[in-house]
Design a protein that fits this description.
It contains 14 helices and 5 strands. It is α/β, with parallel strands linked by helices and 355 residues long. It has a 5-stranded mixed β-sheet, with helices on both faces. Helix 1 runs parallel beside helix 9 and helix 8 runs antiparallel to helix 12.
Length: 355
C-alpha cells in the first residue's frame, strides 16, 4: 500500500471492526434468547404427593429446571434469600403459592412464574405470588445495579488510555498510584449515582463505595500493566475483558441459570459478577454471600497488582538511554520521539473514549 496515511487509517479501523464482531457475538449470544438452564426451584412438602409433583415438574421441564423438595415454607424462604433457588412452589388445593425473590433476578422471578402459573391454572385455582425480597421502589426491576456496573466499568477502562499512553513517561509506580487514586474517584462517582442521585442504595453506601473502588482498581491496574505490552491494542483487550465477557456474565440482567453454560461459568469468577452480586448481597440479602463476592474482587485486584509489577520489571530492563541530538542535522531526536509518542497517546485516548 503506497499511501502511509491510508495505511495508518486502515490499521486503526481494525480495532472498531473487531469490537463490532465481538460485541455482536457476546451480547447477542448472552441476551437474545434467554432460556432456563438448570434453573433451581423448590417444591414445599414432605408428603408423597409433593415428591411426586416435584418429579413430574422435573420430568416435564427436563434440563430447564433443577427441582428439589423442602420441608417447610420457612426453609423455602431461606433458600430464596440465600439465592440457592429462584422460586419455590407451595402446593394447595385451594390457594397454591409461589415464592420468588425478584431482587435477586426480576427475569428469574418471571421465568418461574411462567413455569408454575399454568400448573395452578390446570388445577382450576388462582396462584398467589409472594415476593420475599423486593428491590427498592426507585429500582423496580432490580436492574439498576447492572447500569451502575456499566458506569463504573466505563470510567475505569476509559481511564487506562490516559494513564497508560499519556502517562508513559511516568514510572510504573506513579502510574499504579494514579490508578488507585482514579479508581477511588470512579468508585465515589458510582456511589453518588447509586445513592443520592438515583436512590438505588438506601443504606450501606460505604460498602457500595468499597466494592466499587476495589472493582475499578482491579480494572485500572490490569489495564495500565497490559498497556506496556499491548500499546494501542490495549483498548481492544479491555473491551473484551471488561465489556464483552464482563457485562454479559455479570448477572445484572439475566442470572446464569437463564444463560448458556459459557456465560454461566464466567459468572462464577468474573469481576463484574462479583461486583453486582456483592452489592445485591449488601443491599437486599443481609450480606449473605458477600464474602465470596468481595473475595472475587480481591483476586482481580491482586491480579492487577501482579500485572503492573511484571510490566514495571519489563520496562526497567528495556528502558532505552536518552537519545542525543543528531550531529548531522542538529535536531533533537529525543524531542521528536517524545512528540511522536504524544501523538500516538492522543490517538489512543480518542479511540478509547470514542468506544
Amino acid at each position: 500500500m503506497r499511501s502511509p496515511a491510508l495505511r495508518h487509517v486502515l490499521t486503526h479501523l481494525i480495532t472498531p471492526l473487531l469490537m463490532c464482531i465481538g460485541m455482536g457475538l457476546a451480547y447477542m449470544g448472552a441476551f437474545v434468547t434467554p432460556e432456563p438452564n438448570h434453573l433451581p426451584v423448590a417444591v414445599v412438602g414432605t408428603a408423597p404427593q409433593a415428591k411426586v409433583f416435584a418429579q413430574t415438574v422435573k420430568d416435564t421441564a427436563g434440563d430447564k429446571l433443577d427441582v428439589r423438595t423442602v420441608a417447610t415454607r420457612g426453609d423455602a424462604v431461606r433458600l430464596l434469600k440465600a439465592r440457592e433457588v429462584t422460586g419455590a412452589y407451595v402446593p394447595s388445593a385451594k390457594r397454591p403459592e409461589l415464592l420468588v425473590a425478584s431482587a435477586a433476578s426480576d427475569m428469574g422471578a418471571t421465568a418461574v412464574e411462567k413455569v408454575f402459573t399454568p400448573v395452578a391454572a390446570g388445577e382450576g385455582v388462582p396462584l398467589k405470588i409472594t415476593d420475599v425480597a423486593e428491590p427498592v421502589a426507585d429500582d423496580p426491576t432490580g436492574q439498576g445495579l447492572f447500569f451502575l456496573l456499566i458506569a463504573v466499568s466505563i470510567g475505569s477502562y476509559a481511564s487506562v488510555a490516559a494513564l497508560g499512553a499519556a502517562g508513559a513517561a511516568l514510572t510504573m509506580r506513579v502510574r499504579a498510584l494514579l490508578a488507585l487514586g482514579v479508581s477511588a474517584v470512579v468508585g465515589g462517582i458510582g456511589t453518588l449515582l447509586a445513592g443520592p442521585v438515583f436512590h438505588l442504595a438506601h443504606h450501606d453506601l460505604a460498602g457500595v463505595f468499597g466494592m466499587a473502588w476495589l472493582y475499578s482498581a482491579g480494572i485500572l491496574l490490569i489495564g495500565v500493566g497490559l498497556h506496556t505490552f499491548l500499546k494501542r491494542w490495549t483498548t481492544l483487550a479491555m473491551m473484551v475483558l471488561f465489556v464483552m465477557l464482563n457485562f454479559t456474565s455479570s448477572g445484572g440482567l439475566f442470572r446464569p441459570e437463564l444463560q448458556n453454560g459459557f456465560f454461566g461459568t464466567l459468572h462464577a469468577f468474573w469481576n463484574g459478577a462479583g461486583f453486582v452480586e456483592g452489592v445485591r448481597s449488601l443491599l437486599y440479602f443481609g450480606d449473605d454471600g458477600l464474602g465470596r463476592s468481595v473475595g472475587t474482587l480481591a483476586v482481580w485486584f491482586l491480579a492487577g497488582l501482579a500485572v503492573t509489577a511484571i510490566a514495571a520489571v519489563y520496562e526497567h530492563t528495556r528502558r532505552p538511554r536518552q537519545p542525543a541530538p543528531d550531529p548531522g542535522t542538529g535536531r533533537d531526536t529525543g524531542a521528536e520521539t517524545a512528540r511522536a509518542a504524544e501523538a500516538e497517546a492522543e490517538e489512543e485516548a480518542e479511540e478509547t473514549v470514542g468506544v
